[in-house]
């Protein structure tokens, strides 16, 4: 296994079969990927974070960011009433402005999926459910698969799974690969369709950018539809340099295999200014194809309100108070 990316146009099935023959072959492949220049990645992220956009583009960026939000509540105190209210907000983020777009999805625990579905109906807002022993990822495989199937059966359109970071950090790459592949199979529905699978890395625990690149390729080879930074329960959560490395990975993976994979930074993205930094980075690193809710999401609970405040400011010329919109 050479220390380079696969050749452009590589056969994905053949590549998967080749690199997953054993832990050793998968390890050689992942450790043969080009290393990440830490200083360079952080410097580029910092430079992109200083880019400004024109006023005319800002309105578009705010609406796009709203459409990319996975409105999230993942607390032990979540109630049916709370998640139903969140679902209503997801469909009409600003009830006073019918031109305000809806968000991409509502993300909840699996036992709350049915309550969210009652509200969302066929609105087009997706239902995402965390699964596989979120947020630790430490459970027996049959429990993880049952967790996933229960969420899909309840009506989840998307499953956000967490990898076993202990397995990854100890080099048991094939175990992680096989778990992701098995969870993707568990996302299948009886009608032949499948819930989309987002794979959460918990990048704050992965220690190096090289590990972020490796786990990105590992998840994509295993069939992830999205790769996601964090659970939001560990600090640091999403950062611009980590997201940049993941965007490079999905860009290079598509160039090599022809398959497109989405990216979801989650945790710690709270302001419209932060969101615009991420959108600029998506455009500059991965390209315009990823500037779409089908391929880029924000995992957030507080970001939406700031986006709405900035949007109102552009429309009316004045800021609304922080309690003008519902607090989630």
TrEMBL record:
Signal peptide: none annotated. Its EC number is 4.1.2.4. GO terms for cellular component: cytoplasm. CDD domains: DeoC. This is Deoxyribose-phosphate aldolase. The keyword Lyase applies. Belongs to the DeoC/FbaB aldolase family. DeoC type 2 subfamily. SUPFAM superfamilies: Aldolase. One of its GO terms (biological process) is deoxyribonucleotide catabolic process. It comes from the Bacteria. GO terms for molecular function: deoxyribose-phosphate aldolase activity.
């Amino acid at each position: 296994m050479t220390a380079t990316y696969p050749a452009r146009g590589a056969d994905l099935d053949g590549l998967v079969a080749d690199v997953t023959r054993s832990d050793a072959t998968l390890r050689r492949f992942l450790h043969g990927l080009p290393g990440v220049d830490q200083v360079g990645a952080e410097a580029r992220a910092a430079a992109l974070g200083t880019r400004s956009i024109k006023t005319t583009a800002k309105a578009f960026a705010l609406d796009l960011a709203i459409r990319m939000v996975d409105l999230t509540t993942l607390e032990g105190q979540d109630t049916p009433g709370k998640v139903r209210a969140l679902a209503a907000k997801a469909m009409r983020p600003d009830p006073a402005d019918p031109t305000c777009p809806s968000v991409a999805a509502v993300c909840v625990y699996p036992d709350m999926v049915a309550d969210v579905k009652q509200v969302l109906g066929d609105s087009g807002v997706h239902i995402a459910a965390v699964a596989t022993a979120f947020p630790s990822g430490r459970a027996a495989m049959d429990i993880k698969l049952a967790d996933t199937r229960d969420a899909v059966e309840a009506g989840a359109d998307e499953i956000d799974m967490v990898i076993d970071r202990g397995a990854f950090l100890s080099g048991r790459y094939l175990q992680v690969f096989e778990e992701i592949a098995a969870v993707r199979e568990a996302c299948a529905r009886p009608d032949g369709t499948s819930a989309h699978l987002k794979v959460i890395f918990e990048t704050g625990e992965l220690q190096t950018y090289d590990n972020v690149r490796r786990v990105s390729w590992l998840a994509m080879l295993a069939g992830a539809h999205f790769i996601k930074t964090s659970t939001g329960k560990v600090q640091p959560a999403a950062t611009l340099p980590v997201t940049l490395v993941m965007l490079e990975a999905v860009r290079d993976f598509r160039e090599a295999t022809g398959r497109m994979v989405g990216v979801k930074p989650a945790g710690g993205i709270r302001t419209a200014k932060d969101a615009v930094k991420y959108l600029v980075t998506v455009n500059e690193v991965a390209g315009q194809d990823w500037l779409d809710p089908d391929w880029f999401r924000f995992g957030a609970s507080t970001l939406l309100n700031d986006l709405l405040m900035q949007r109102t400011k552009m429309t009316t010329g004045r800021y609304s108070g922080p309690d003008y919109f519902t607090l989630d």
